[in-house]
Each structure stands twice: as structure tokens, then as C-alpha cells.
Amino acid sequence: CGGANETAQSSNKETTGSSAKENAASPVKxxxxxxxxxxxxxxxxxxxSDFNAxxxxxxxxxxxQGTYDESLNKMKASMDSKSGPSLIQxxxxxxxxxxxxxxxxxVQKFIDADKYDLSQLEENIxxxxxxxxxxxxxxxxxxxxxxxxxxxxxxxxxxxxxxPPVTFDEITKAAQALSKDGKAxxxxxxxxxxxxxxxxxxxxxxxxxxxxxxxxxxxxxxNKEAGLKALxxxxxxxxxxxxxxLGRKTDDTKKAFAAGQIAMMLDSTASLKGIVSTAExxxxxxxxxxxxxxxxAEGGVVVGGASLYITNNKSEAEQKGAWEFIKFLTSPQSxxxxxxxxGYFPITKKAxxxxxVKDNLVKYPQFKTAVDQLHGSKANTATQGAVMGVFPExxxxxxxxxxxxxxxxxxxxxxxxxxxxxxxxxxxxxxQTVK
Length: 435
Ligand SMILES: O=P(O)(O)OC[C@H](O)CO
Known about the structure:
Bound molecules: SN-glycerol-3-phosphate
Helix content: 40-55%
Number of domains: 2
CATH class of the largest domain: Alpha Beta
Largest sheet: 6 strands, mixed
């Protein structure tokens, strides 16, 4: 996945886009910036080449631009010129910024012109990206975080393989049983996304004004009870050495998990295919929903991953070409292929009827966890997810706060209070710049 906490690696070439030559005889060229590295990059390239082979009018050039953070920063740097892409994949937390940037043509324009039937998409996915009454981008790769556990280690510790822990206390208990012979029960990367999701799981909003959905957010809630509960629990596990602190990168927890050094970790469902393939023949991988406190209010998860934005400083032909590619990517066949080869869940309902999806679920029942978690989420502003223009910066501030609490530099309350204050200030400054 292209999360900030992934190490950007790709076999794909990294270049800057060149402007498309357009005439009646040659196809419209689309530059597509994305953040899919490693295996995800390979699957993305396959979808691009399938689209290019399927017709002659539009040719897409996929350009890996680093992590979501890196790609968005390059996008920001390109906004005053035409050197940017025709189409860009932006993580969910970049949504408010992309709209405010005025650099995009909302996909709603093409949806309306084309009479594209939105009811074929999952409502709880489109609701995330529906801001200001319209769909500004098209969801493409959607994920949520799940618990991955090593079933063999569970067995050796005398734990029930088919009843994974689902509450904070259950995780702590299981981790205690699993921490032996130099191995740790768990490790959770210091990834702000997990904190955002812990809020939703407890039915709590992350910022004010209905999570920034009813009016632009003006205040961070990261120091409220939901945050404090999550961080206090997390820190207690690190303090009693049942959870290792391996830093911010999910790549590092993934490596420790693959090596059998930790029995449980949190990661995006985007990593699922890679994780089960790596473990094949070594140990059995179990999956479970993101944990929550036993007394949490009803909540769920927020749609993670990324969506696709059409930029508005390219020709109409290029923008239409980008829309054609988007339609291809949202087809049941493309989404089915994408889902089974990654772990991102389909955005298109009919993808579930595709035989490869059915076969895959039989072979890898783990693919159902994230889908069930999404469908089981109570629809409210907490699970619709927060929006704020400074979300990428806010995420990093929260990661700094988690780090300070886990390292014992500050109490969870003090670390979160400071983070909330600094995010609220940043939101205030940002709001002044938005017309
Ligand atoms: O790694 P991904 O693509 O599942 O995305 C995770 C987060 O939603 C990124 O903000």
C-alpha cells in the first residue's frame, strides 16, 4: 500500500509526465500518477496495459510517484504548471485538500454527462468521497485496517485459533500468552491511520463539525476519550513488553510478522495477498477485525486507501480519456482482479459475483474480514470519516504524539493534548487560506 508508513519501492519507472500530443490520428495520452509499489504496482501495471490493449483512443502511462505523501507533495509542486498528471491517485486523507485546491474537475461532471449509474458502487465507499453533495473523485483502491495473527503461534500458546481477540483487553491477554521464547505477542506500527480508525471503531468523531462533514472542521478531537483509551492501552502493552515498538513503518511490523517474531499486528487489508503469500508453507495467517474497547459505542471503520482525481488544467479530450480509464477500473472485472490480487475490497457490488472472487474466498477466507468489517460498520459521521485540509500534517503530528507516549517522554494525555492543540492551530491557519 502507498501509505506514508510504507517504504516506497517499485519496479515501475519513475519519470515526470510529458504533455500529450493530440491529433485525430493518435490516441489521447493520459499520465496517471500513482503510489502502488511492489506487488500492488505490478497489478496496477497489468490493469493499465489491459485498458490500453482494450481500445485505441486512449493510452495511459502509469507513473509511480512514491508514497501517497510523496506523490501529493509532487502534485502540489506541479500545480502552477502543466507538468502534473491528467489523473492522480490520492489517499483518502487528501480529499479536502484536493477539493480546496481547485485543481480538479469533480468526477461528478462525467458521471452526470455519461449517466453513469452510481448505484453499482458500494454506498459506504461513495459516501466517504461525497463531499459538498457530489463525488469529487472516484474511489479505486479501498481498504481498512485488520488484525493479522499467526495461527501457529496461537496454537503453541494454547489459544483458540478460530476465536481471535477482538477487544483491547482480549488482545492484551492473548499477547501475554504469546510473549515467550524471545517472541513478542504483538507490534503495531506507529501509524496515524490506526488512531483515526480507533476513533471510528468507538463511534467517535476525530474533528468537530460532524467530522468536518457538516461544516469545515475547526478543532481536533484527538485528545478526547477515544484517543486516550487507545493510546493508554497501546502504551500499557509496550510497557509490559507484550508489544514491541518497531517504529512508524508498517513494512517493519510486516517483516517481523513474516519472520515469526511477533504473533499479532495491524495492517491494511491492502497487504493481505502479500502477507498470505509470504507465509504460505511457513505458518497459517488468521485475520480479525480492528480491536476496540469492550465498552465502545457502536462504530466501525472508515474507508481507507485512495481515490482518483481528474486534473482540470488538461484538455477536455485528456480529461474525458481519464474518465474512460476510470470507468474501466471500476468495472466488476477490473475490481475483481484487483481485489483477489491485492486485498483491497471491490468498490463495485457486482465484482462479488465474479468467479475469481468466489474461488478466492474459498481458498483464502481471510479476504472476508475487511469486507465484513466494512459492511458491519454503523453509518454515522464517525465512520464516514473525518475531513480536514491539513489531514496529512495532522497524521504526522499524531504519529509524533504516539511515539512520545510509547517512549515515555510524555503521558498519553499530555502527548495528545499537545497534538490536538497543534492540529487545531493548523486547521485555523488553513481555513483562512480557503475561499
Ligand atoms: O495502504 P492503503 O492503501 O490501504 O491506505 C491506508 C490509508 O488509508 C492511507 O491513508
